[in-house]
């Protein structure tokens, strides 16, 4: 069941009855309807060739092929032009980070980029040292971190290992963000232009919004795993193709390979894709139940082989994720309750030309989760498109899909301008397996894709309006400007961050830290202080650190609900309080003994405090109460605690 089939609703039974008996009965092809070549080829690769051979007189096939070459080259140049424009737009969005990738970071939250850079450095160790890819002890030592239960982006990090080795994980991070935005827009353009619409402008508009929507821009500063959606258009199209495929086994294998790759980019987005395809197909079948009689056999065969193959490839990684060490079940209550405010759908996103960070306060969980924010004009235009094209089954199915996930994105408590109205349907779904690990506000990403496809269909259908060509062009451009200009992307806002200390980059730490010991950054790495993770990433994780920013079971007990960070740490909390307040506590012997026990548990070799750290003097004096005086080395204070923490052999 492809979009071509859903667009065929305009073909009536009377048309079929009037068709000559000698001709195949098929939906008419008009300005808004086109049987996709790709779908026909997937259904039966011999159909196109047989039709061409039967229609072309002997000796003319070669001439037709020659005539087709300029058209193919024209299409390729057109595609390359669109891809290039998308890449330029992505560079524009990330331009402020490109100025200094290692020294600049998102202005509001710096934790997620540091975590991603740590994961990128882990990919280097996987490739160069054969390290186990799904678990690491290089941070949160000695408990370690379950990387499958976090977002280790192995499918992105491993191909980027040469870039990480040459330029460092900070450069790799901005490269991934740039390519993710441009690649997602290009992938949607490609699928839309080949299988859904004929107009290059329509496909480009749809691809643009899918790649540069406010939701995508919101995640761009922090979550390259979420915005790397370039496989999704092909997964969606393959799911629709297999409903009419004559080669379901082959199509099932192709789908399994794409599903497996996406699982190592972001599992949550893969789950969203599966849910969206399911809801869309149900919306189609609700309107035309007769389609099920021809669709269920190829669909069942393809999904069976997909499940077997993808399940085999992912069985062990998923075992590690859900039953391996440091596995957790479900997210913390704070994240689980993240939902969009209804008003968020009518406000422009913060990273857009019409956006206002102060106006968007409390409309989203935070600025990295603005998963709606279409603005008034686009929201009304999207509703208008559905009303205009409501006779098309495809549009009705898309509208139902977008609305369904928009409602789910409101979370457990539905609110309007931060005023709680009533309980949302997510309250009844949040405890289901798999869904208990979903951040509900991100369902708005599905609605964004639906809006992008609706925009493409609207531009395509407008070509058939009974208006003078110049008037039609003017109205189309005016509509696009009204819809897209208020949410046009702006360069992501960044701020400077402290450089990795010379003590680290000059490898002076190697004289202290052994393979089974840790370097303890001050403050101890946690969700709010991730600079120590960047230090380790800059060395490709050649030393271990305690703590860090990651998801793990509460108190380190495998199977408990997830939380940010590892086991509670007394010395970590002590130094966190000093770093935040600047107040030096008076420590007693009991606190010193407990702190030393923790350092022994971490097998700490040295404690390192950058001279330029905020409240560094207060931190230095606090650490001296714990382990005695340190010494200045290059741009850090160093405390060699090996004599205190080495266990007797």
Automatic annotation (TrEMBL):
Residues 91-430 form the DUF6311 domain. It comes from the Bacteria. The chain crosses the membrane at residues 80-98, 147-167, 173-192, 222-241, 248-265, 271-287, 299-319, 373-390, 397-417, 437-459, 471-492. Residues 11-24, 37-59 have a biased composition (Low complexity). Residues 1-10 have a biased composition (Basic and acidic residues). The keyword Transmembrane applies. InterPro entries: DUF6311 (IPR046278). Keywords: Membrane, Transmembrane, Transmembrane helix. Residues 1-68 are annotated as: Disordered. This is DUF6311 domain-containing protein. It comes from Micromonospora echinofusca.
């Amino acid at each position: 069941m492809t979009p071509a089939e859903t667009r065929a609703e305009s073909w009536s039974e009377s048309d079929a009855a009037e068709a000559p008996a000698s001709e195949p009965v098929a939906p008419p092809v008009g300005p808004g309807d086109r049987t996709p070549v790709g779908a026909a080829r997937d259904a039966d690769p011999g159909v196109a060739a047989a039709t061409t051979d039967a229609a072309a007189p002997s000796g003319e096939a070669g001439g037709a092929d020659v005539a087709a070459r300029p058209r193919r080259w024209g299409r390729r140049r057109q595609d390359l032009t669109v891809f290039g424009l998308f890449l330029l737009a992505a560079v524009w969005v990330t331009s402020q980070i490109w100025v200094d990738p290692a020294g600049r970071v998102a202005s509001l939250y710096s934790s997620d980029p540091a975590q991603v850079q740590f994961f990128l450095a882990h990919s280097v160790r996987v490739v160069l040292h054969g390290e186990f890819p799904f678990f690491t002890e290089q941070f949160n030592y000695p408990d370690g971190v379950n990387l499958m239960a976090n977002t280790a982006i192995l499918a992105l990090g491993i191909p980027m290992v040469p870039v990480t080795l040459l330029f460092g994980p900070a450069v790799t991070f901005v490269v991934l963000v740039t390519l993710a935005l441009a690649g997602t827009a290009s992938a949607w353009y490609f699928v839309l232009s080949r299988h859904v619409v004929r107009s290059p402008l329509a496909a480009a508009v749809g691809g643009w919004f899918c790649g540069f929507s406010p939701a995508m821009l919101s995640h761009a500063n922090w979550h390259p795993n979420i915005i790397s959606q370039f496989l999704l258009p092909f997964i969606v199209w393959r799911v629709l193709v297999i409903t009419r495929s004559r080669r379901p086994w082959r199509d099932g294998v192709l789908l399994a390979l794409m599903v497996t790759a996406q699982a190592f980019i972001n599992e949550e987005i893969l789950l969203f894709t599966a849910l969206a395809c399911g809801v869309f197909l149900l919306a189609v079948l609700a309107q035309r139940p007769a389609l099920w009689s021809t669709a269920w056999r190829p669909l069942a065969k393809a999904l069976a082989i997909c499940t077997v193959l993808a399940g085999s490839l992912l069985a062990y990684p998923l075992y590690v994720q859900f039953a391996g060490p440091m596995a957790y079940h479900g997210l913390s209550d704070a994240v689980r309750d993240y939902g969009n405010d209804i008003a968020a759908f009518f406000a422009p996103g913060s990273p857009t030309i019409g956006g206002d960070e102060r106006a968007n306060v409390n409309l989203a969980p935070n600025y990295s989760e603005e998963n709606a924010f279409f603005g008034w004009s686009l929201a009304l235009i999207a509703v208008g498109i559905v009303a205009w094209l409501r006779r098309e089954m495809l549009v009705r199915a898309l509208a139902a899909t977008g609305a369904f996930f928009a409602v789910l994105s409101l979370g457990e408590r539905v609110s309007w301008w931060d005023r709680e109205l009533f309980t949302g349907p997510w309250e009844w779904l949040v405890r289901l397996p798999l869904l208990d690990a979903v951040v509900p506000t991100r369902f708005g990403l599905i609605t964004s894709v639906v809006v992008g496809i609706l925009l493409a269909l609207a531009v395509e259908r407008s070509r058939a309006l009974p208006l003078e060509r110049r008037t039609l062009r003017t109205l189309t451009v005016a509509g696009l400007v009204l819809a897209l200009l208020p949410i046009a992307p702006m360069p992501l806002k960044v701020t400077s961050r402290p450089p990795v200390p010379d003590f680290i980059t000059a490898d002076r730490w190697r004289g202290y830290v052994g393979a089974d010991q840790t370097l303890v950054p001050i403050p101890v790495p946690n969700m709010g202080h991730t600079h120590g993770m960047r230090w380790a990433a800059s060395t490709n994780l050649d030393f271990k650190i305690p703590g860090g920013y990651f998801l793990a079971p509460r108190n380190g007990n495998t199977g408990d609900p997830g939380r940010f960070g590892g086991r509670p740490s007394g010395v970590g909390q002590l130094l966190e309080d000093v770093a935040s307040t600047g107040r030096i506590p008076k420590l007693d012997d009991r606190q010193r003994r407990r702190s030393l026990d923790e350092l022994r548990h971490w097998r700490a070799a040295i404690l390192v405090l950058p001279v330029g750290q905020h409240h560094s003097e207060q931190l230095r004096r606090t650490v001296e109460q714990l382990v005695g005086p340190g010494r200045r080395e290059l741009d850090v204070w160093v405390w060699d605690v090996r004599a205190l923490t080495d266990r007797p052999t």
